[in-house]
Model the fold of this input.
Amino acid sequence: MTATTHRAVGTPLARLEGPKKVTGAAKYAAEYPQDDLAYAWIVQSPVARGRLDAVVVDPTDEAIVVLWHGNAPRLRDADDPELAVLQSAAISYRGQPVALVVADTPEGARRAAQTVRLEITAEEHDTVLRTDHPELYTPETVNPGFPSETAAGDVDRAWAAAPVRIDVEYATPALHNNPMEPHATIARWDGDELTLWDSNQHPSGVAATVSQVFGMRPDQTRVITEHVGGGFGSKGTARPNAVLAAMGARVTGRPVKLALPRQQMFTVVGHRTPTRQRIRLAATSDGALTAIDHQAFSQSSRLFEFAEQTAVATRHMYAAPNRRTGHRLLRLDMPTPRWMRAPGEAPGMFALECAMDELAAELGIDPIELRVRNEPEVEPETGTPFTSRHYVDCLRQGAERFGWSGRDPRPRQRREGDWWIGTGVAGATYPAMAQPSTARVRAFDDGGFEVAIGAADLGTGARTILTQIAADALGVPVERITIRIGDSSLPKASVAGGSSGSASWGWAVTGACRALRESGEREAVFDTTELIQKQEKEGRHAFGAHFAEVRVDAVTGEVRVSRLFGMYAAGRILNPRTARSQFLGGMIMGMGMALHEEGVLDPAMGEWVNHDLAEYHIPAHADVENIDAAWLDEQDDQLNPMGSKGVGEIGIVGSPAAIVNAVWHATGVRVRDLPVRLDKLLPHL
Amino acid sequence: MKTFTYRSATGFADGLEPGAVFLAGGTNLVDLMKLGVAAPDVLVDVNRLVADEISELPGGGLRIGAGVRNSDLAADPRVRTRYPVLSQALLAGASGQLRNMATTGGNLLQRTRCRYFMDATKPCNKHAPGTGCPARDGDHRNLAILGGSDACIATHPSDMAVALVALDAVVNTSGPAGERRIPAEELHRLPGDAPERDTVLEHGELITSVDLPAVEVTNSAYRKARDRASYAFAVGSVAAALTVAGGTVGDVRLAWGAVAPKPWRARIAEERLRGAPATRESFLAAADAELAGARALRDNAYKIALMRNLTASVLERLAAAGGTR
Ligand SMILES: Cc1cc2nc3c(=O)[nH]c(=O)nc-3n(C[C@H](O)[C@H](O)[C@H](O)COP(=O)(O)OP(=O)(O)OC[C@H]3O[C@@H](n4cnc5c(N)ncnc54)[C@H](O)[C@@H]3O)c2cc1C
Done:
């Protein structure tokens, strides 16, 4: 081994698979040729609640088989009832898969799915989240295991005594992940061995789950996930497409492809729950918070309890002696929500950071100054010290770069032509997590190394970063490293989720590389399970601050974001190029959450009616004018060998609030239900 | 999608076959076929049949072949200088890729984006006559405030068509009853009790070209309000042309988009404006007169304020730009 002094980590190495992607050579799940391939299409329930009594197939259709609960193979229970597809007559939501057509062509499958007759007994449904619903309840825990409720001090007394108070309600709509690559699976059985080419964030996890569903040993399913066009949480676990493709392949004895069309993704693969939130803030007249109370309402399906951790970030953001957070959940005849980029933090921090802005205005204190005055020394609820916390630095340095000083705090003061102009700020936070993973490294005679881990690269740059980490741990240039990921037959890796991929996998890769160097062997394997179990779980967060300048057209109410800037303290930045793209992507998605995205519910139909990308808006290029991200050089050696925190999600946390606060500053209008669209502003302009 | 036969049209009569539908750029029709909302038996491809040229008409007008792509039409120097409202309307629509495919004929005949119409699993009087209109009580934020009926409140989504209606364009067709010249304003019909029929065209009637009359007013503009900066259908739009002489409105053309089942020529407003002072007050009063007939539902009343503001703003700008002939 030749030692090098050059460090790869921290350099802006371009994505290794970039050339393959732009030339079309990189293969996605649906793109692996198969002999004798058949195509599947999902038939969705047209009612939100009821029973499917029978399925009548049009004999002129070209279906090889139409599967439904009357003839589908029996499956074993998985932890996720959404995967018990075609197992029962009960219909739990509109859009639920109730039958599967397999045909020789995709068009034939789709047509048969459109003409199949479903005999259904429909029942009254209930699909609207309300804060006065009698069936609301407090779940035992919220994801991924936090207590639903926390309290310290006496909020009511502090509230009664406070000179300045804010009591506001916010609403966020259902949001839909919509990764560029829709969910897709090709399934092929070779005897009792199943191979899935599947688009997901966790090949090892999908293999284990699908094996469980079909009553097999975990190693009987192999999941290949070479390239993934995004997931944003919706591909974190096996989705119904993986199970249905495998079922269709088993029944027909042919490889089967199931690629979801965009329209089906709105119901079949998960979404972000709508929320209703009430925030009460009490403060002294010089802006010291005396009480924080954050109560969040969200929904789940009849199938299982998915309890989003909406108010959890509020537990560590600001100091206050009296505090309370709580979650209430309502089970509706709707699809099960799932993770979507910063689940919990994104909607929760929208509410908290807008409320802080409202309090700042009420107090007549600059919103940055208000936050600085309430900076906690330790985690306010647990008393745990932070491994590192540079929130105030992000606010101050971000303010300087953005040009905050001299801002007139009064709303509706700046007008240029038809445009009202304003600026806003909001904080950001995201937990710094790591999960057990195993990596293997092999040395070859030509001086090269193969690093293998069953991780998934969703387009984030994971493959590239792991190569950099391995190169440094082995002390060789990156060219000598061959990285293998995206295959469940490789050493088991944790999910590409919770912004924990680089930390978790990088830790295992570092461990394996160091073990190889120390042992002098040709191969080393390293499992981080024990090290991670020993780690303290609290006090580990990344922080940041978002700044926005918007203009609002006084004629139409249209909002444009002239500038969006994020300043982050997220540990050591492993690759500035890929990190920047994560920060910017998160901020743009935050812009979508603030201004565009909304699943529009028709309560009579029991369905979101805007289920394609012409009607469900995300920002277009023209919406992104001037956007930038910067970060502090944060040292934190208590987290993992790289000193890194996740960067994938923090960009969407707080950026919506910064934009909404800027809209208020521009116009004097507080919009508390997202998205901020022209019809909500126009009457007040 | 239902199995269909495909053939390239050789003559106008090809479209007469029952179950036949013309295919141009396919950017709307093919989507609807995939969704099961349109299920033709025969696709008659007109791309080789209809002209894709823009030519001068005697007397100063322009003839736009029905096959001219939206991007080519928007970029044509004659259109840009003589009919800026048309070029602007085209460029405000869809995306670069779509405009490269979309044709003049197809754009005029594109169907509503009403979310119930676009979903074959839902009731809709337009795609399944007699099944009802769930939009009235459901999602109608972007549906009609003018010209709707109990049976249908769909809006016509085209930007281009709004400009053509403002310009008094004429649609030339060839069909079973021979050739016809239909004023653009009369091409689309209001839904009444028969919302399944969008236009006055007969089965098999082909749009061959669109005539723009000789320019009288080059001082024209299109303004579109939408839910994001680009690549979004209008939530309200205004096409206008204006001349002002001595502070008084001379000629004025005004058409609105995204408020009615058809591109809406604001005749009442125009009437009010001719000879009136070219001031913001008259512009607002004219818009109000037109909007007196508006019927808003729970979530689309904002369009009334929006159209009022947009109309005044566009006319003010045109008046300031000189408004000369
Ligand atoms: C995502 C998206 C966004 C869009 N945004 C906008 C927008 O912002 N503004 C806007 O105005 N439009 C927008 N569009 C719509 C687009 O402009 C239309 O799809 C396009 O203009 C249709 O033209 P085409 O040639 O592709 O028509 P086709 O899809 O081929 O045909 C449409 C209809 O016209 C008929 N037809 C076509 N040619 C003739 C003819 N010569 N004679 C008789 N009948 C004919 C067909 O039978 C069919 O019924 C958008 C479309 C999409 C998919």
